[in-house]
Structure formats: structure tokens, C-alpha cells
Design a protein that fits this description.
The protein is an alpha+beta fold and 289 residues long. The chain has two domains: 2-115, Aminotransferase class 4, branched-chain amino acid transferase, N-terminal domain (D-amino Acid Aminotransferase, Chain A, domain 1, 2-Layer Sandwich), CATH 3.30.470.10; 122-283, D-amino Acid Aminotransferase, Chain A, domain 2, CATH 3.20.10.10. It contains eight helices and 16 strands. The protein has helices at 22-26, 44-57, 66-79, 122-127, 154-165, 209-220, 232-236, 268-283; strands spanning 2-5, 8-11, 29-37, 40-41, 85-92, 109-115, 129-133, 170-174, 180-183, 187-192, 195-198, 224-227, 240-245, 249-256, 259-260, 286-287. Helix 6 (209-220) links the parallel strand 11 and strand 12 (224-227). It is globular. The structure holds 4'-deoxy-4'-aminopyridoxal-5'-phosphate.
């Protein structure tokens, strides 16, 4: 496997970062996860834009233009013949002194990995996920804004630990006001009649790119869509609930906190949108070559 590091493609064993990199020492950096479908990078410009927004928010200057990052992503896919896969773009603060001060770091590290990802087994897409709400709340937006896709995922990891300890694979995270924010690495939607609701970023959700695509596809199909603050009650009593994310795509949630959602099976809206998403993803995207 060839890894893109700071302008060069290097064999994986040589793709190394310093133990003094603040990405490692403090989780100081940003990242993106992007899909490649049929030799095309899905929503490349949107991911690159979000990467630059995340970097700007943490005062990290990415030493490449947007165009150069986009081209480097395609180049890494080509070098690895990654035509169906998952690309991870990581920008760390770089090597610095011990101590938090990011201004001791002179060279941000840009790393691109083109590989594969399988988040959930196929059967769970047919059966739906059982999930729980957990005690760890989503980061307060005045602490680490959840819009920043930073290398510091401890908040989400703590929630994931709670979910796994409770015998499930995924967690719903609430915000400091007890409103639904998102799952640990996915956005959440509830369907009620012909209306599709999802929490706004202000409730503590990342502005997911899959979320945006699903909102568009739903509107095109005549569903009403809205960003809405939601409580657990709204999820428990929804007709359908599903999660969206680059890796998971669209996955049905059929049980939350031991309450069946709807009739406990993936619902027709989720299935319709999943189908629509696959069709769209097969046609859209930036060719890698
Ligand atoms: N929320 C969080 C916390 C995430 O990390 C992600 C991405 N894995 C998402 C939502 C979904 O965003 P996207 O659709 O852009 O992958």
C-alpha cells in the first residue's frame, strides 16, 4: 500500500510520523473520511471544503491548496488502485515541543490513506441496529464544536464504550440540554408520516455530508424535511429511525433503549432512501483518473 505523506507517495512501512507530532500527543489535527464508488470519489469538493473549515476553526494552516488536496486524494486512489474504498485524509499539527503550544509546530503533516472500510455486517442492514442512549453527552459547542472533525474523538469513543458495554454497537449522544445530537460517528434521522427530521448542527451534530445528500434525495422524492431539536421521546415514537454516515451509508435503527421503533423492522422510507442513495452514489463523483 502506498500512503501519501507531505507531497509524496511512500510505501506503508515508511509512512511514519514523529512521536512529537501534536496529532499523537494531543489529538491536535483534523481529518476526513471519504468514499470511492466505481472509481469516483464521492462528494470530493464537499469533503475538502469541510477539511479546510475544520482546519481554519482550529487555526491550522493546511500547506496545500484545496485543488492540490483533491488531486492528492485522486492520486492516492490511483496509486492503490482503490476503485471501491474509503479514503482517510489526516492533517496533524506536526512535530513540536512537549507542551500544548501549537505554535511550536512548524510543519503540519498531511497523510492520505486509500483503503477499505466495513463498519457493519451486511445482515445488520437487513435487520436494523439496536442502539442505546448513553450518559456521555456530546461536546458542548463552546468546548469543542462538533462541526469540527478533529482528531480528538475521545468524546465519541467514551460514548461508544458505553454502547458496547450495554451490548449494542452504537450510541445516541444527547447534548447538554438533553436533546438528541447524533450517534458516535453518524447523524441520526427520524421519519414521521411523510416528514423526515434530523437534529440541527446547533444541537451538537456534525454537518454530515451523507446527511446533506439524504436530505436532498428525500426532498426530491416529495418528503418534507426539517432540522428539528428532538428528545428521546421523538425517537421512541417515530415511525422509522436511521443513521447516516460516509462509512455506514444509511442504516436502519430498529430498537432504541429496548423500545421497538415502528414494527421493529427497517421501514419503507429508510429502504427507499437507501436504494436512492446507492443509485446516486453510483453516478456521482470525481473520477480518480
Ligand atoms: N457525526 C460524526 C461525529 C462523524 O464522525 C461523522 C463521520 N463519520 C458523521 C456524523 C457523518 O458525517 P459524514 O456523512 O460526512 O460522514
Amino acid at each position: 500500500m502506498k500512503i501519501f505523506m507531505n507531497g509524496r507517495l511512500v510505501p506503508e512501512p515508511q509512512a511514519k510520523v514523529s512521536v512529537f507530532d501534536h496529532g499523537l500527543l494531543y489529538g491536535d489535527g483534523v481529518f476526513e473520511g471519504i468514499r470511492v464508488y466505481h472509481g469516483r470519489v464521492f462528494k470530493l469538493a464537499e469533503h475538502v471544503d469541510r477539511l479546510f473549515r475544520s482546519a481554519r476553526a482550529i487555526a491550522l494552516e493546511i500547506p496545500m491548496s484545496r485543488e492540490a488536496v483533491a488531486e492528492a486524494i485522486c492520486r492516492t486512489c490511483r496509486a492503490n488502485n482503490c476503485r471501491e474504498g474509503y479514503v482517510r485524509v489526516v492533517v496533524t499539527r506536526g512535530k513540536g515541543e512537549l507542551g500544548l503550544n501549537p505554535f511550536t509546530c512548524r510543519d503540519p503533516q498531511i497523510i492520505i490513506i486509500a483503503s477499505a472500510i466495513q463498519l457493519y455486517p451486511k445482515e445488520l442492514y437487513e435487520k436494523g441496529l439496536r442502539i442505546v442512549t448513553v450518559g456521555t453527552i456530546r461536546n458542548h459547542s463552546e468546548a469543542i464544536n462538533p462541526m469540527i472533525k478533529s482528531l480528538n474523538y475521545l468524546n465519541n469513543i467514551l460514548a461508544k464504550i458505553e454502547a458496547i458495554n450495554a451490548g449494542t454497537l452504537e450510541a445516541i449522544m444527547l447534548n447538554h440540554e438533553g436533546r438528541v445530537a447524533e450517534a458516535t460517528g453518524d447523524n441520526i434521522f427520524a421519519a414521521r408520516g411523510r416528514a423526515l427530521l434530523t437534529p440541527p448542527p446547533s444541537a451538537g451534530a456534525l454537518a454530515g455530508i451523507t446527511r446533506g445528500v439524504v436530505l436532498d434525495l428525500a426532498r426530491q422524492r416529495g418528503y418534507e424535511t426539517a432540522e428539528a431539536t428532538m428528545t428521546r421521546y421523538d425517537l421512541y415514537t417515530a415511525d422509522e429511525v436511521f443513521l447516516t454516515g460516509t462509512a455506514a451509508e444509511i442504516i436502519s435503527v430498529t430498537e432504541i433503549d429496548k423500545r421497538l421503533i415502528g414494527d421493529g423492522k427497517p421501514g419503507p422510507i429508510t429502504c427507499e432512501l437507501r436504494e436512492a442513495f446507492h443509485q446516486y452514489a453510483a453516478m456521482d463523483g470525481t473520477p480518480i483518473d
